[in-house]
């Protein structure tokens, strides 16, 4: 998933007018009163103004000073984790072009929530705690999507199945904790966001349909070259999996999966492990596609450098392809509902 932006609701200044007694008294000035933070709710859309632009550098520095903790060795990294975060200063009608959609709002399991002692804990992206938060939030963000439902229907709730989006396609998914003031005030929640590089009216619900532009889909040709889906290709990636929870729970043996071959190290799962992941991929394929002759969905683990990757994530994917060796080519996306 993309780096998680933090959210900060804007405090708008209200003008308060004083009344007059008689005709000769000057109205008394009053302090501007901040309005309550905007409501961060599923189904709302926003611009993508970032924190430094919304607060100014001094205001951003004050935010870091208050919420990034007292450890000087970690403060710079925590500040950088906040610098490109969305400020959520302006809500937009979702029918109009927008940059961010809040497609879900979720909380952590109580046992994990208790382990977060301060907002600063959410900014340490290299910590073990952050990895647990990432997995839990991703799981809950996508629970009501076609990808989350496919997990449950296939009996594979730990594979963390989610959409596959092209890196240069202009769309991305992210998650964020509520703004620092709201979090510290007791609203310990997270926002799940669908982001558009150029403001538009595509919605998260469109990801499972043919309404998402094909440039955002991921199609591959030998030897693993990404090509536009309108050109002949051998496979289309329809879902990505984060297998950390499955590895931690013993459903996937990550160490045994890394093997030595004539051409070096590679990743291969057991037949039982493949079968479990294939079921989730097949259920997802049937949910997003009316089906193509001879095309089916299969699971493939990532390469050795994705087992795990630099962020400690074990990666696998669902591909739609014709089950032959080598797979015959076809055109277009399988997302046709």
Helix content bin: 25-40%
Major β-sheet annotation:
6 strands, antiparallel
Radius of gyration: 23 Å
Q: How much strand?
A: 15-25%
DSSP, total strands: 15
Give the ordered list of helices and strands: EEEHHEEHHHEEHEEEEHHEEHEE
Our measurement of the CA-to-CA distance between the termini, rounded to an integer number of angstroms, reads 25 Å
User: Which of globular, elongated, flat, extended, rod-shaped describes the shape?
Assistant: globular
Assembly category? single chain
Give the number of helices. 9
Low-confidence stretches: 1-36
Structure keywords:
337 residues, alpha+beta, six-stranded antiparallel beta sheet, five-stranded antiparallel beta sheet, 15 strands, globular
Descriptive overview:
It is built from 9 helices and 15 strands. It has helices at 51-67, 72-83, 110-113, 128-141, 146-154, 180-184, 244-248, 254-257, 271-288; strands spanning 13-14, 33-34, 44-46, 91-92, 98-106, 161-162, 171-177, 190-200, 218-221, 225-227, 235-242, 258-261, 264-267, 296-301, 315-321.
In short:
The protein has 337 residues and is an alpha+beta fold. It has helices spanning 51-67, 72-83, 110-113, 128-141, 146-154, 180-184, 244-248, 254-257, 271-288, and strands at 13-14, 33-34, 44-46, 91-92, 98-106, 161-162, 171-177, 190-200, 218-221, 225-227, 235-242, 258-261, 264-267, 296-301, 315-321. The longest helix is centred in the C-terminal third of the chain and has 18 residues, at 271-288.
